[in-house]
Amino acid sequence: MYGIILVGIKNAVLLEYGELVWKQALHTAGCKLTVFNTYQQYPDSLIPDLAAALSAITGRSIDDFMVFFGRCFVRFFSNFGYDELIKATGRYFCDFLHSVDNIHLQMRFTYRKMKSPSMQLIEVDEQGAVLVYRSTRSGFSKYLRGQLMEIAKQLYNMDVTIKVLESQNDVPGGTAGPISIQGGLKTVIVKYRLDFDNRDYMQRRVHITAHPSQLQLSPVSSSVLLDLFPFALILNEQMRITAAGEKLIESWILNNATRSPTELMGSKVTEYFKLRRPTGITFTWENMKRLQTVNFEIQLLKGSTVQESAEASGTHVDLKPSIHEHDDPSKLMSIARRGSQGLRSILLKGEMRYIKDINSLVFLCSPLINNLEELREVGLYLNDLNTHGLSREMVFSGFSHNSRLDLMCEREEKRAEELETSLALADSWKRQGDELLYSMIPRSIAERLREGQNPLETCQSFEEVTVLFAEIQESLTSDDSIKYAMTTVNTLNAAFSAFDELIQSPMAYKVETVGKVYMAVSGAPDVNPCHVQHTGDLALGMLQSIHDLNLPGVGVKIGFHTGPIVAGIVGLKVPRYCLFGDTVNTASRMESSSDTNKIQVSGYTANKLRKYGFKLTFRGQVSVKGKGEMETFWLDAGPSGSGKRLNMS
């Protein structure tokens, strides 16, 4: 499966559900990729896995998402001009349905390793059509439904209702068909009924009457037809070869040098020819007669292949040469000598047409040859090809065409690689930008702003949180102000970096640093019922960090208080998440009136800490600016003596 499908799905999911849902889906599906290359191949299982992941996240069914994915791809491929390719297939939706296989054949020039399904219309009426889908992948029948409905809606402005009439080997959610007893994958076959307004198509294509001038034309012999199409085949109702073009007979002799050319006539077509496309159907009269608008590819089998095929079917094939009286020995010997050079098998491409007058099928075809090299490999010359049409011109231009095509593909692949690198780099920059943004404002607030919420609406009140302040103390001074400033910066960087490592969301959030003061809060922006306990652990951890740094003359004063606050985003240029309220002021006073390497808390906070088992010592009455006298406590240690406050005075 090529990345163009996944790119379309990604764009649609981002547009419909947002980036968060897409990331969750990738994680749930076990996909570590965030960027998909248009021309790179990925596992077929990725699409059903993403559908299952999105189903689990959103509650919609997996089938709904497979249909959604099919619709998404049609919307997306218009960016590459493929919608124009579909429109060019015909005026009516039925014209497109007849040409699906041909479109896939053309797409193989761009996507060389594409494993396309096969689709044929088997019934057409004024109310719609019956389509048969064949594939080696299971679970994608719903995906096809989405594609067909979206193409009908967007390109042909009509609504299509699709229902499944029959289904074989289509395992829901799978990507590979079931294994057959004989080995290999079973073909997934799904028969759809498509209901849509098909009256115009039936009137213009099916119920059309011949012009009177055509009815007056005299009959034409089949030999004239074989002269015009020297590689044509005529088959009767038993699928036996009744006539063949001169060049096809010569090619058959080249590939079966040990056999008589007369054996070709009257033989079963399957003895010497293999149906390559459409895939998944048998070479029968009913199928060929029904699929007259489909391009067929038939391979002429070589002698060894014929023998193997015959032995497998239990029939006897005589490989001894048999020259009849009416054969030209010199011509046969010349052709036989050409056939001894190990030639490639010829691939014939054309249409099966039913001729009512002779009750026969005529395969009007020409060899599928791209350039002069291939022409030599199959043992043909330019004058062997049809004089009409563009067969000869295509061979002449094959060299330059293939060279240009290879060059274009190489350029596209290079551009795709560059695009993939650019997208990966952009993704890296985005992650760095996100990290920078989350360092300024909380992640939950940032996500709300991304979704278009007004910054004023981020303002929120909290009934109770715990606010902490910590101020770095330096006892050493220097006469050199510049040297002292640089030392202070290094000290603050080391201390605050150590504090940052202690901050873990949602237990605590770093609000800001101002000068030598570090501010943190627990209980906002993420509500945390254990905010007092987590702040106590954070304060003791800060004290331990300063001790472990062992910086000469450096200590820390810490204080915190519990109460209600209001928080929100302030500013546009450098937005910050700020806290407001008397609780903030009181917590700041707890820090400023504390002692170096000690943790001071208010009486209200101390009562809550005791419930968690923290060890505290009563300090006494402390004069607090704006509050008067307040009872405060020293926090000595955590529960059961853990996190004991160190004596660093």
TrEMBL record:
Chief location of this protein within or outside the cell: cytoplasm
Annotated EC: 4.6.1.2
Family, as annotated: Belongs to the adenylyl cyclase class-4/guanylyl cyclase family.
Keyword DNA damage: no
Subcellular location: Cytoplasm
Domain Guanylate cyclase stretches: 466-591
Coiled coil stretches, renumbered: none
Cited PROSITE patterns: GUANYLATE_CYCLASE_1, GUANYLATE_CYCLASE_2
EC top class named in words: lyase
UniProtKB keywords: cGMP biosynthesis, Cytoplasm, GTP-binding, Lyase, Nucleotide-binding
InterPro entries the record matches: A/G_cyclase, A/G_cyclase_CS, H-NOX_domain_sf, Heme_NO-bd, HNOB_dom_associated, HNOB_dom_associated_sf, NO_sig/Golgi_transp_ligand-bd, Nucleotide_cyclase
Record organism: Aedes albopictus
One Pfam family per UniProt: HNOBA
Protein name per its UniProtKB record: guanylate cyclase
Source organism phylogeny: Eukaryota, Metazoa, Ecdysozoa, Arthropoda, Hexapoda
Family matches, as SUPFAM superfamilies: Ligand-binding domain in the NO signalling and Golgi transport (SSF111126), Nucleotide cyclase (SSF55073)
